[in-house]
Amino acid sequence: MISATRLTVRHRRHTAVDSLDLELGQGVHALLGPNGAGKSSLLRVLATAAGAVEGELKLLGRDPRRPAERLEIRRRLGYLPQTFGMFRGFTVRECVSYAAWLKDMPGRGALDAVERAVDQVGLTARMDARYRTLSGGMQRRVGIATALVNSPRLLLLDEPTTGLDPAERDRFHALLRSLGATTTVVLATHLMEDAHACCDTAIVLHASRKVFVGPPRELELAGGYTAVVAGAVH
């Protein structure tokens, strides 16, 4: 689903991702690393919202550099950036319907998909509530629903558990575990709890480079996230 070879991403003179090799298939994959490690930059490239300056990338078997293939990727993609905003006067239904419209989803199918996505994040009872009236955690769940509405084959989530209370986080972990059976999910997070609760793979970035890939249990056997990053420094 994701195949990257020597992928390099730069912002002006700063290298955000340096010569990354990565192969990810179905399942849930945690992307870990300190602030500035390159997590959000990598997700933006995987979401086709930005481009790499070097290397090769295939998403869902397609090349995002080719306009027609990039369009096909986007139709099969779900993406929640770290900073998510929506028209504050929209209802929950309207927020998710707008996301469906952006994905070119057809009429009746879109209506059903909106209801399904809202139900997946546990907001059916608030379907007609205005976005501005929701708590921060509920607004985050609306964002997750917009990423899920098109039943994506590739789902990219940047710090999605921010603002969720413990019960909401548990429900979200269960949702990701179920999605991982048929979908490639990449979850950028600061929380090892997220990695242990629902992820098949942990990928650790440090100083723009990959320093670990493997099951979360192996990361713990290696001394944990902090030890792996400290070892990369030396």
Describe the structure.
- By secondary structure, this protein is an alpha/beta fold.
- It has two domains: about 1-75 and about 155-234, Rossmann fold, CATH 3.40.50; about 80-150, no CATH class.
- It contains nine helices and nine strands.
- It has helices at about 40-45, 65-75, 90-100, 105-120, 135-150, 165-180, 190-200, 215-220, 225-234, and strands at about 1-10, 15-25, 25-30, 55-60, 75-80, 155-160, 185-190, 200-205, 210-215.
- It has a six-stranded mixed beta sheet, with helices on both faces. A three-stranded antiparallel beta sheet has the order 2-1-4, with helices on one face.
- Helix 6 links the parallel strand 6 (about 155-160) and strand 7.
- Helix 3 (about 90-100) packs across helix 4 (about 105-120) and helix 4 (about 105-120) crosses helix 5.
- It starts with a strand and ends with a helix.
- The model has no long low-confidence stretch (mean pLDDT about 90).
Task: Compose a concise summary of this entry.
The protein has 234 residues and is α/β, with parallel strands linked by helices.
Uncertain residue segments: none
* Assigned CATH architecture of the largest domain: 3-Layer(aba) Sandwich
Q: Per CATH, what is the topology of the largest domain?
A: Rossmann fold
Main sheet: strand order: 5-6-7-3-8-9
Q: Which value, in Å, is the CA radius of gyration? A: 18 Å
Structural class: alpha/beta
Can you give the helix content as a percent range?
A: 25-40%
Morphology: globular
Strand content: 25-35%
Order of helices and strands: EEEHEHEHHHEHEHEEHH
Q: What is the first-to-last residue Cα distance? A: 33 Å
Reported for the largest beta sheet, the result is: 6 strands, mixed
- Using DSSP, what is the number of strands? 9
Number of structural domains:
2
Mean pLDDT: 92
CATH class of the largest domain equals Alpha Beta
- Note the quaternary state here: single chain
